[in-house]
Amino acid sequence: MLLEDVLRIIQLVLSLSLIGLILFQASGSGGVGTLFGGGGGGAIQRTRRGLEKTVFQLTIGTAIAWVLNAILQLLIQ
Predict the structure, then answer these.
(1) Which one of 13, 16, 23, 60 has the largest count of C-beta atoms within 10 Å of its C-beta?
(2) What's the pTM value of the predicted model, to 2 decimals?
(3) Region of residue 42 (phi > 0: left; psi between -120 and 50: alpha; otherwise: beta)
(4) CA 13 distance to own-chain centroid
(5) CA quadruple 53, 55, 19, 39: dihedral positive or negative?
């Protein structure tokens, strides 16, 4: 029972962190409008640098940890 509770708390923290990172990333790259293709830019590709790259990598890592934690919770049940 204790391990299940710890995993639930970890899942909650990961979920909130992932939401925050996604919102921070979206606001830094043009806002919510760019999420649905309204950002324009056409064929111009822009590379991520500095803090933007770090936030992107943190988002990927947090998402992977979230999925692994969810799978672990399913296996424990």
Answers:
(1) 13
(2) 0.72
(3) left
(4) 12
(5) negative
